[in-house]
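Please fill in the sequence for the structure shown.

STRUCTURE ENCODING:
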């Protein structure tokens, strides 16, 4: 149902892909895109929503695709790239008057706090945005998994998967199939049965086992983050198995 402009959630975790930060320039951080994302995060924080963020690093480095590196080394370099994005996003949010903390799973005291669960929760309770960098701190895990893990650790009510030009979950690839239909809601079991690739399999299993809801939506439309937070029907919601899978009208 459309919202009345009030937040539907008290505490959220927002997962932003690294690719979203580069805009149309193909690499790095696009200043205008960074400012737009920071503004939207500041807007929801100003609504009183306790906001945590995990940001990827695909705009700088993707460890799994690194040539000449073993997987573990590539993943560690990717973790460092997520901290670069996190610190950049922190500055952009704070320019909008919202106090922000970066917590890193890999210690780097001159740039960020170490990840401490209770400290992160305390920051959120005080109205600060918390950005989690360096993934889980371990190779072989994606930032999707880091987002699911941190969401459960801090007691987030929902995991918001903000995608770049992807407006939800479809029954088949809409780029290849014009008759593809978007789900309004889909259960965890149906998503697995149909192999819908909502997120990394490990992250998805964590959310399913702990009944953490997921919303997949397109963040490139201005205001979509706030609309989702306020309960408007944007994107696709992954729901518990005792609820119903529905296609969007």
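FILLED IN BY: designer on duty
SEQUENCE:
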């Amino acid at each position: 149902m459309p919202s009345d402009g009030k937040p539907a959630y008290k505490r959220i975790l927002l997962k932003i892909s690294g690719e979203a930060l580069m805009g149309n320039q193909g690499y790095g951080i696009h200043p205008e895109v960074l400012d737009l994302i920071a503004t939207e995060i500041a807007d929801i924080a100003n609504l009183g929503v306790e906001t945590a963020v995990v940001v990827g690093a695909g705009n700088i480095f993707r460890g799994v695709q690194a040539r000449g590196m073993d997987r573990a080394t590539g993943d560690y370099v990717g973790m460092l790239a997520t901290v670069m994005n996190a610190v950049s996003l922190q500055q952009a949010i704070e320019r909008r008057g919202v106090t922000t903390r970066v917590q890193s799973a890999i210690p780097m005291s001159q740039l960020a706090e170490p990840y401490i669960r209770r400290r992160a929760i305390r920051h959120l309770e005080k109205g600060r945005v918390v950005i989690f960098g360096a993934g889980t701190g371990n190779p072989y895990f994606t930032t999707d998994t880091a987002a699911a893990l941190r969401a459960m650790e801090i007691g987030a009510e929902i995991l918001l998967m903000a995608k770049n030009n992807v407006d939800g979950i479809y029954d088949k690839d809409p780029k290849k199939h014009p008759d593809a239909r978007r789900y309004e809601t889909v259960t965890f079991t149906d998503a697995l049965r149909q192999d819908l690739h909502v997120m990394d399999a490990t992250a998805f299993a964590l959310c399913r086992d702990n009944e953490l809801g997921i919303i997949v939506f397109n963040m490139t439309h201005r205001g979509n983050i706030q609309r989702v937070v306020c309960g408007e029907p944007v994107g696709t919601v992954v729901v518990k198995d005792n609820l119903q899978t529905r296609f969007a009208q």
